[in-house]
Design brief:
By secondary structure, this protein is an alpha+beta fold. The protein is built from 3 helices and 9 strands.
Length: 157
């Protein structure tokens, strides 16, 4: 069986990461959990094109640059992961899909859960997104913050 193709975005600002609280609808992936913005690729659609489309659809945001981080294939889903700095204030985003959005601090990411001010409760981060985010932190952000080294636009130091 051909795996589902998805494009997801790690949008970051300092040591915070933009996450979407998924709607609590049992028929969607990761209902009621925090996850990255993104979604399925349309037939014949390139992952980069899908990522831009999904961000416009979900938060009306088009980052100037999206860089490929990695592709994760678990056999059922191939997740094409992109990253970019969030260059606008969070209140400049328009949540068009999901229950909430938040810039989640790395401390909450490490715990695997974040508080939703809209729902007034703490919800878990979806397991695969949690794992990906911790790997991204370890590979790029933590080293950049500790060393003061800037990450070039192609992900190299």
């Amino acid at each position: 069986m051909t795996p589902i193709q998805a494009a997801i975005a790690i949008l970051h600002h300092d040591s915070h990461f933009l996450l979407q609280l998924r709607d609590d609808i049992p028929t969607i992936r990761f209902p009621g959990l925090w996850a990255f913005f993104g979604g399925h690729l349309e037939p014949g659609e390139a992952p980069e094109v899908a990522m831009h489309r999904e961000l416009l659809e979900e938060i009306a945001y088009a980052p100037p640059t999206l860089l490929k981080f990695h592709a994760y294939d678990d056999g059922a889903v191939v997740r094409h992961v992109f990253h970019a700095p969030l260059n606008v204030p969070i209140d400049a985003l328009t949540l068009q899909e999901g229950a909430d959005l938040k810039l989640v601090p790395i401390e909450d990411v490490r715990r695997g859960a974040a508080f939703s001010s809209k729902l007034q409760e703490t919800r878990a981060i979806a397991a695969p997104h949690h794992t990906i985010l911790l790997e991204f932190w370890d590979r790029f952000v933590a080293n950049e913050l500790e060393s003061g080294t800037q990450i070039n636009t192609d992900g190299r130091r």
